[in-house]
Structures
1.
Amino acid sequence: MQERDASIQSFYEFIKEGKLMGTKCLKCGYINLPPRPICQACGSKDWEWFQFSGKGKLETYTIIHVPPAKFKDLAPYIVGIVKLIEGSSITAIIKSKLDEVKIGLDLIVDYMEYKGEKLLCFKVEESQS
Amino acid sequence: MLNVAVIGVGMTKFGRHENKTIRELWVEAAIKAIEDAKISLKDIQAAFIGCFSSEWWEHQGHLGSICADWLSICPTSAVRVENACASSGAALRCGVLAIASGLYDIVLVGGVEKMYSGPRKLSDTAYATEGLALASDEAYEQAQGLTFPGLYALMATAHMHKYGTKKEHLSKIAVKNHKNAAKNPLAHFQKEITLEEAMNARMIAYPLNLYDCCPFSDGASAAILCKADLARRFTDTIIHIIASTQASDTIALHNRESYVSLRSARVAAQEAYKMAKIESKDIDIAEVHDCFTIAELIAYEDLGFCKPGEGGKLIDEGETEIGGRIPVNTDGGLKAKGHPVGATGVAMIYEIVKQLRGEAINQVKAEIGLAHNVGGSGGTCTIHILKRVS
């Protein structure tokens, strides 16, 4: 029995703790992100928590010029889909200069305090060279 | 075989109807369809009405009964169907299934949406934008600052990267659809635009600018379906629905294998071609869901009008223009005819029926037509194929 449900609430509780968590299927090994109680790949209901390294690449992106009211102060800002090195993908705000963003960019998970919330985002990972 | 015919169609003008509420728009479209079919109100045995979010824009739920009530067809069964922007494609499919089941002979289907300020509630662009976002994943897309245009922008960026599609290809789709709408008196915008205007409009969600996005519109659409063997009682031009399919996909884009194609559209199209016993090359005319220009380009590929990645080439060669190999959105599409979300799916059927009857504004030679209605960013897709059989 897991301490926390594979719920939306659990995902955001982990984000508050600075952890990007998904659920790993105990039957087929598929890593579900966001966490799900039923495996997207095989339908199994047996899972365990899985913590991502936070490293990944930018798969696609947009620059939001007309934002929802809540995000007005940030616009224009980048939202992208990040493919983590473990294989799962997630949507998040990307911290990058607008003219430097491109598909394939190496990213690492980051968090941003915004209007009393801790938002999941990713920042550009400086190359190790 | 489905054994379903379309014997009547009707729609309101799409655009701003500041003095009308949802039920009033619905009644206008429904009465037009009933008159077109030359039936009376008492002939209707069931109704299915697509509407995305009357709650958001008018604080009105329980829409099935409201629509039956104001049309004065109570106690006829009336169901509201919601599949985001594919609500009336899904309502149409419910009507098809209802007749195919043998339970009913004559069914009313349609859709309605009110997105501008009306006499009962105020709305503006910001309010409408947030309303449209209801079709995306609240917990994992909206919460990350993603907007509805942003979702299709993610697809556009990915398509450009993978296939070398250019912004110009997208803008050419906007120019084509505005040109088609220019003569359509029911269209929201009856104005041609230049490629230069389309390329240089205000940015909404890079790489999509204002002219890549359909407008918010008010409007309603309706159609009368009947058991095919009864159709000749009502009309000499018999139009059958030879395929009706629907597929789903994950609500969030990030849980899909591809961002450059909609699995729901591919699956629904493949099933539809199989059901109709035809191939994509047999389609003479198509109405596709161009909520954003990139959506039309991806639809060309998902429906098999060209190979994956060659949507840009298809528009470059003019094949989807009137006079081309497969004219697409001859009425102006969502882009210029307008997109009252819940009304769109059956408004596509309106245009296909007009074309197959030879009564269209931008008439082309057509015997078989296809309607592709997408909900959200592809979480739903319905496909209907219509054929003139006499």
Note: Chain A touches chain B at residues 8, 11, 33-34, 40, 59-71, 74, 76-77, 79-81, 89-93, 103, 119-120 (CB under 8 Å).
2.
Amino acid sequence: MSLPAGVQRRSFGDEDGVLATRGEPAYGEPVVDGWRRWDAHRSKLGATFELGLDTGLSGGDAVLYLGAANGTTVSHVADFAGPTYAVEFAPRPVTDLLAVADSRERLFPLLKDARAPETYAHVVESGVDAIVQDVATRGQADVALSNRQFLADDGRLVAALKARSEDVTADPAAVFEDLLGRLSDGYEVRATARMEPFHEDHLAVVATPR
Amino acid sequence: MTTHGWFADTAVRDADAAADAVRNGHADAPENWPAAAVEDGVVDDADEYYDRLRDATRAATRAAVRERERADDQQLVHAVRTIADLSDAANEVAERAVEWARTLFDGVDDGIAGARDVAGRSANSPTEERAIALCERATGLADERDRAQGFVETHAPTVAPNLSMLAGPVLAARLIALAGGLDDLAKLPSGTVQVLGAEDALFAHLRGHAPSPKHGVIYTHEYVRGTHPDQRGSAARALAGKLTIAARVDHYSGDRRPDLEAELDARMERIRARETE
């Protein structure tokens, strides 16, 4: 699998082959020669790369990022992607996200609810190359389906599904099966991988719109 | 059907109007907005479009965050204490008003319902005028209490979304008020949250002549009140634990954690299952 242009494997101290992007440091991560370490243990998209999934992401892509939180992962995405729309619902993390956006010309922070795309459809352009989804709410499949309208026909959904957000008591494998079944209403699932050891009870999914 | 982008209907060069459109606008479906903006002559090219969009989204989001954070816990504390005071005052005034009204009218019900009934009547004497006016006061106090309660119900989820999700908005607000604020509540140990509102019983226990209280105001939660008395202490302890975590998440991170509710449900199911054994 190939990394998008703008994401490289670099050496940090005695560690080789560590993911990194070029940009302003955002959260105290190590920087060597202008490359910021992208820790797969702190970022589900980073883990998705480490797991070897072909995300189909390319340098300069237009990206809609759902569940941006305080901007840890979004900062790396904006480093290699083109216009990046970062949607997050909770006000406190968005304060950090705004700081991340200060040094990134094409990162657009939005305090909006990913379950209500009509509240940002007047801002986010259609035909984005990728939707990156990491929302820890019940109804993750519905979020992906209702945001499909933003995606180009040849675009990709790169999602980190969290089993415990749907049902803490159920077996994660059963939750994932159910979520993938519902995703198939609007997407064709291309690849999946459990995210252990980086993130527990998460499933990385790459899908294309049907 | 709305098919306008954020830049339509506003001079996109007016920063305030553009930010407001980003915040409050909506559309049924996205379109190729950069191309549309160039076509409409709003901007010269996509680069200028993205520069404008960057200014507008950052201003809009900064303003939205500030407003959401201003919905602060102290307003909630005032509202909760107001509800308690108004309840007492409304009942006390209604009691006096109804007692007076009964000497003038037949068939007046007890309490605020009786006062409300009399409040609508027209007076035929100066005496009736006074009694009816007092009934109107009692009714007005009760109405204001209801409005304060409505305020708590809509504002508690903004101030403390996770705590409100688990406890319900009114109990969430009462816990915040008893602790003195969300930051104070977030610093309390779970065992203290469990007995908030039962201070009399707690100090009687500490003085050594009463059993320890099992619960304070969290008694009003269905998971405590609706649990068999033998298991109620366990239920109160489990609920207080989750409420404490919820208050801390609300204060320190502000994230939504739907997992908490499912975890609480699962825990309660196990505790309640014991009573049938």
Note: Chain B touches chain A through 40 residues (CB under 8 Å).
